[in-house]
Amino acid sequence: MNNRPFLFWSVVLVVLVVGLARPVPAQPDDLSVESVTITVEDLDRAVPFYRDALSFAPVDTTMWTGPSVGRLVGVFGARMQVVAMRLGQETIRLMEFRSPQGRPIPPDSRSNDLWFQHIAIVVRDMNRAYERVRTYGVTHISPRPQTLPESMPAAAGISAFYFQDPTGNALEFIHYPPDKGRDRWRRETEALFLGIDHTAIATADTEASLAFYRDQLGFEVPGGSVNFGPEQERLTGVFGARVKITALRPPGGGIGIELLDYQAPGTGRPMPADTKANDRWHWHVRAHTASLNATTQRLLDAGRSFVSPGVVERAPPGADAGAMVRDPTGHALLLASPNVQR
């Protein structure tokens, strides 16, 4: 009896079983979203606006410069001033490039353009918050606050308003009804502005984005919604808007990320392929993880697009090392290791 076919398929079966048994690389279960960095044109205008109109408190000012910073953000000779500002438990960073300066946000930028990103500032009283920023002469994206109807159960009763900061960056006020949002937004307080629930980013493909944030970085998906109708159109300033929204929460806590996938009228212009960190439409989410090297290597092995040449030591300020990667749409994520005292 010829045993060669039997031996051949036995070997194949063993190889397949061994291959299937290989452990999947561990996700960084400690990864937390520490802050969102917003590129601004002029800190002398931006800081007073966020402080006085929105009640953010400045907590730190640093100058980012030197070869390691330039390698991290992919801009040769980068020199920028960064102001950290806090609202409630959350932090943003306002970043002004002193040199070299990049390109401005396109004046006709729309909510479905794929560079679109905003932070959602939770407010206790939408009418008061709206009247507050009107006195600062903000540019409206929404004509006025919008309350989403019962026809969208997952979003029903949420009220929101889109507007712009002095640079033209998009911001959102959001107010949750009693049956929605995290418990902390329902605590008794006299504060008008409570904190940042999430940063929302336009995506070209929800599944591709989930493969990055959920499958490779360990973000959880607590829920989602499909928003449409006249209220959604007025909110976003996009006629015929039908938006698939997917909420993401980092495994280690912090600010959430929300994916905005325009099913109609379809996504707008793509993220420019030559986008640099000094272009004013550039934002980045800053995430902390103790497994920076392993996470960066896993993303490199998966063929993800990096701004930095992998991990850069002694950058950014306030961290031991960092790496900047782009998600499938082109939005930037700064992975940083906690600052270790040496």
Question: What keywords describe this structure?
Answer:
342 residues, alpha+beta, 2,3-Dihydroxybiphenyl 1,2-Dioxygenase, domain 1, 8-stranded mixed sheet, 7 helices, globular
Q: In words, what does this structure look like?
A:
By secondary structure, the chain is α+β, with helices and mostly antiparallel strands. It has a domain at about 30-265: 2,3-Dihydroxybiphenyl 1,2-Dioxygenase, domain 1, CATH 3.10.180.10. It is about 20% helix and about 35% strand. The protein has helices at about 5-20, 45-55, 65-75, 125-135, 205-215, 230-235, 290-300; strands at about 30-40, 55-65, 80-85, 90-100, 115-125, 145, 160-165, 170-175, 195-200, 220-230, 240-250, 255-265, 285-290, 310-315, 320-325, 330-335. An eight-stranded mixed β-sheet has the order 2-3-4-1-13-16-15-14, with helices on both faces. A hairpin with a 2-residue loop joins β3 (about 80-85) and β4.
